[in-house]
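FORM 7B: Structural annotation worksheet

SECTION A. Query
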Amino acid sequence: MSICSMKFIRMFAVSRLRTVSIAFGLSLVSFSVNAEDPLLSIEGGSSYMGGFYAINQSAPAIFGEVVLEEHAIGNSAFTWSPDVVGGWIDGRDIERYNASRYTTTDHIWMLAGGLRFHYGTPSAWYKPLFFSFQPTLHSGRTQALSSSYEFTSTVGWQAQHWVVCIRHSSNGFLHMPNRGETMVIVGLSFRL
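SECTION B. Predicted structure
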């Protein structure tokens, strides 16, 4: 297969992935308008390119998140909720990457849509723990987020009026470099 054919196939696949991700995100957003008592969180924190060890490479991050009503998974103690996150990660000027194909200066706007999972009965102390996974689209290209799509996973604790979590976005080595962004986030939550 020629290089030109491979580039076309890759470009076609990425374009389809973008279209599906945008449609999924928009359907979750439109569904959230009609949902009963969605949970809205306004979140902020620090994002670390490549992990927590790079403290001097951190950047501010701000997010808005909407979590819709919970649904049981069969007869189990697991539940799922639609989850939509939109946000921004500031750029950073790291000199050693200035001559690279992807620098670190782009400001990243993100839109993610997926599912949040909980486990336990409503009265269990661990019920506020959650895990979420979302396909993600974003603007800009950096050493951390080098493709136009990423996968975002979050582990956290959702109380009635606050949330604290660790969020990670990367493309799963589908495009290099793949340093990823790891964020420490806290936020205020309220029902709409």
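SECTION C. Observations
The two ends are 53 Å apart (CA to CA). The chain has one helix and nine strands.

SECTION D. Sign-off
Analyst initials: ____
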